[in-house]
Specification:
182 residues, alpha/beta, 4 helices, 6 strands
């Protein structure tokens, strides 16, 4: 029994740390001009290196809630009906540790490490007729910091920060108001 407790303690030490999420460029809050009611159609194209589609489903739900008056068009019918808003997402998948995290694991958490990994790349394009009038790209990434003193904070790691940052980026892009759609 003691051996199992020691094993679980070592595993928790090796895997403990804090994770913070950020986007580049930073998401600005421009809520003065609203054009969301003018967006009638949109398309969401999601590419992923993973086989599961939980993130794609969440992205579609968030987009539908952010633009309730718009209808989603399938990417296959995009050539026939040009959408007002085109959203392209690419989900990165990294299953390996960064080089400096191996040193933290070998030292049982005494030597700290930090690593930044890209998680999601989002491209928004707003069209006026057949010409794009506004485009923006966001890269959402996570920075993990591992150290033995951060072990208690590993329990409070929020898992839906990627979705929240996507939602903020979408709302900021829609409300920016560089062009108007009739």
């Amino acid at each position: 029994m003691r051996r199992i407790t020691v094993s679980w303690s070592l595993i928790s030490l090796l895997c403990s740390g804090c994770v913070s999420y950020s986007s580049k460029p930073e998401i600005s809050d421009h809520t003065n001009l609203k054009i969301e009611s003018s967006i009638k159609t949109y398309t969401l194209e999601h590419q992923s290196q993973r086989s599961t589609g939980w993130l794609e489903k969440s992205l579609r739900e968030v987009t539908a809630k952010a633009i309730p008056s718009a209808q989603e068009i399938s990417p296959q019918t995009k050539a026939e009906n040009k959408p007002d808003l085109t959203i392209r997402t690419f989900e990165f998948f990294t299953s390996e540790a960064c080089a400096q995290e191996y040193l933290t694991g070998l030292s049982l958490g005494l030597i700290p490490s930090w690593c930044t990994r890209p998680i999601l790349k989002v491209q928004f394009t707003l069209d006026y007729g057949n010409t794009p009038c506004q485009a923006n790209e966001y890269l959402i990434s996570s920075t993990s910091i591992s150290h033995i003193t951060l072990m208690p904070f590993a329990v409070f790691n929020p898992s839906n920060q990627t979705i929240e940052l996507y939602q903020e980026a979408l709302k900021s892009f829609i409300n920016y108001g560089k062009c108007t759609i009739p």
